Amino acid sequence: MHWIILVIAGVLETCWAVGLKYSQGFTKLIPSILTVLGMIASFYCLSIALKHLPLGTAYGVWTGIGTVGTVILGIIIFKEPISVIRLICVLFIVIGIVGLKLVSSN
Predict the structure, then answer these.
(1) Is 29 helix (H, G, I), strand (E, B) or coil?
(2) Where does the record place a coiled coil (predicted)?
(3) Is the pLDDT of residue 104 over 90?
(4) Is-contact 64 20, C-beta < 8 A?
(5) Of 31, 43, 71, 81, which sits 20 to 30 A from 13 (CA to CA)?
(6) Which letter, b or e, does each residue of 37-74 get, where b requires 16 or more Cβ atoms within 10 Å of its Cβ?
(7) Could you report the per-residue pLDDT of 16-44, keeping only the tens digit for each?
(8) Domain ranges across the chain
(9) Residues near 29 by Cβ (< 8 Å), separated by ≥ 6?
(10) What CA–CA distance (Å, rounded) separates 95 from 106?
């Protein structure tokens, strides 16, 4: 269950990172409010997961999910460039996330 909460925290991190783009430096009210709510929810879920998972593992997975999700949404939503090297780098992050999960004792 703690891993599911951690994945939710990572997905919420992706949401608030994309929300930062839409908030335009917190100058747009609704996107800014949604971004801050996403941040709070993401940090809350992370804090719950940290009660039972090792800090380094949980934080690494959380930021990794957020990074991969943000890169993917940046490509899809904002038409950011795609390159083989960029996709390989994202693959390394995914491998790191899976690796941290596999070596975790929880």
Answers:
(1) helix
(2) none
(3) no
(4) no
(5) 81
(6) ebbebbeebbebbbeebeeebbbbbbebbbbbbbbebb
(7) 999 999 999 999 999 999 999 999 999 99
(8) 2-103
(9) none
(10) 18
